[in-house]
């Protein structure tokens, strides 16, 4: 009788939720970005050849001069305070009555999706998404043990 080979000695300690975690398709898509002959927006990355490095350098210098001590540190989980206060100003111009506690900024769309999934999805909930769908959202929903139903969309939508 052969002995089972264990590749991960800690696997028995993992939560059941990890059974729904898979290697990200986004990681596979991002590998295409390394090819110089391909411009791929699939991973949500900008095309760096289209960026103005002179402008970017100017903005970085401006930020370092104004807020160097803050901009080079980890920020709070609720986001960059000056940005949050500016968002409140803009929202008030739009007629929305908001206060600082109403605003959270994220590091990107994926973090926002994951936070929403964490707050609203219970194990076994059914989520209806369009197909094709953003794989980052699908992976996040699956990690919270949701049942996903994909509804195909066509050019008329």
From TrEMBL:
Residues 55-154 form the Aminotransferase class I/classII large domain. Keywords: Aminotransferase, Pyridoxal phosphate, Transferase. GO terms for molecular function: pyridoxal phosphate binding; transaminase activity. The keyword Magnesium does not apply. GO terms for biological process: alpha-amino acid metabolic process. Its cofactor is pyridoxal 5'-phosphate. InterPro entries: Aminotransferase_I/II_large, Class-I_PLP-dep_aminotransf, PyrdxlP-dep_Trfase, PyrdxlP-dep_Trfase_major, PyrdxlP-dep_Trfase_small. The keyword Calcium does not apply. This is Aminotransferase class I/classII large domain-containing protein.
